[in-house]
Amino acid sequence: MKILGLHHVSALTANAAKNYDFYTRILGLRLIKKTVNQDDVSVYHLFYGDEQGTAGTELTFFEIPMAGRNRNGNNSISALSLRVPSDAALHYWKDRLDQHEVPHGELEDQTGRLTLSFEDFEGQRLILVSDEHNSGIRGGVHWDRSPVPAEFGIIGLGPARLTVPVAEHTVLILEKVLGFRYRTSYPSPVQGQPDVLVYEVGEGGTGGEVHVEERTDLPAERLGRGGVHHVAFRVETEAELREWVEKIRSLQMHNSGFVDRYYFRSLYFREPNGILFELATDGPGFATDEDLEHLGESLALPPFLEPRREAIEAHLKPLDTQL
């Protein structure tokens, strides 16, 4: 029973069309699945990733059209990271973000890696992180139809930042339950707050980290557009996931039990600071019901929703994702 690294991160948007435009046209990601939220089929669930939708490269969005703006705060996944191949790539991205009038910070060193923070059109907090010195989990495969050149393109998810009022409660779950290990720390960006703790899992590196930021000066987050719903970690097989279900139950942690998402199998639970964690299998994958060359071009529904296609499509605003 081993966690292999980050699997995906799921966030909220209020506008699927603008979201699709930003993450494909500006960030150069591939839309690997256009489907619906299986818990609320009236709204889209969009998946972006590398060429094949490899586990560890997936950034997903639930569309909630009437969602208010996220009120940033504690008990949250407060930033997402996206990996790029090199330091030179970050200089390219700084220029690209300027060209598209995307607000961003300055190039900064974080635990020996060059980073660049920015926000999308809804205030989603994102960080580009260089893989120049990464020796851990490998990145994904660049999509050959991306508008971003291969040598600069995004190749996967980087560290997720968890902002919590009591770091030791989250650390307990990371270390004692999920098998993360402490790697290092760095100063908080806020004077007077504890250092940010870096934990890694699996082969480590940029694709296997969470950063735990303790903040005693913030109210709890109110989740909305521009906020993050949950972070998922990789489990290799369904059999192993079922063992995790039993382990989490044995610890008397409230959880979802085994969930079949068709493209992967899942288990959801909340750690003590209220952040939603998911464990998800690497497969079957996103080419299960679509040809690899045409991922994301039409509305995909898992078999258990296919009989309801006509009613589902009638309630969705058309979203053109044809290339």
Describe this structure in words.
Residues 5-131, 156-282 form the VOC domain. This is Ring-cleaving dioxygenase. Keywords: Dioxygenase, Oxidoreductase. One of its GO terms (molecular function) is dioxygenase activity. InterPro entries: Extradiol_RC_dioxygenase (IPR052537), Glyas_Bleomycin-R_OHBP_Dase (IPR029068), Glyas_Fos-R_dOase_dom (IPR004360), VOC_core (IPR037523). This protein is α+β, with helices and mostly antiparallel strands. The chain has one domain: 2,3-Dihydroxybiphenyl 1,2-Dioxygenase, domain 1 (Roll). It is 17% helix and 34% strand. It has helices spanning 16-26, 87-99, 167-177, 238-250, 309-314; strands at residues 6-13, 30-37, 40-49, 58-63, 76-84, 108-110, 113-119, 125-130, 156-164, 181-186, 196-200, 209-214, 228-235, 259-260, 264-270, 276-284. The strands form two sheets. It has an eight-stranded mixed β-sheet with strand order 2-3-4-1-13-16-15-14. The protein has an eight-stranded mixed β-sheet with strand order 6-7-8-5-9-12-11-10, with helices on one face. A hairpin with a 5-residue loop joins β15 and β16. The protein is globular. The model has no long low-confidence stretch (mean pLDDT 97).
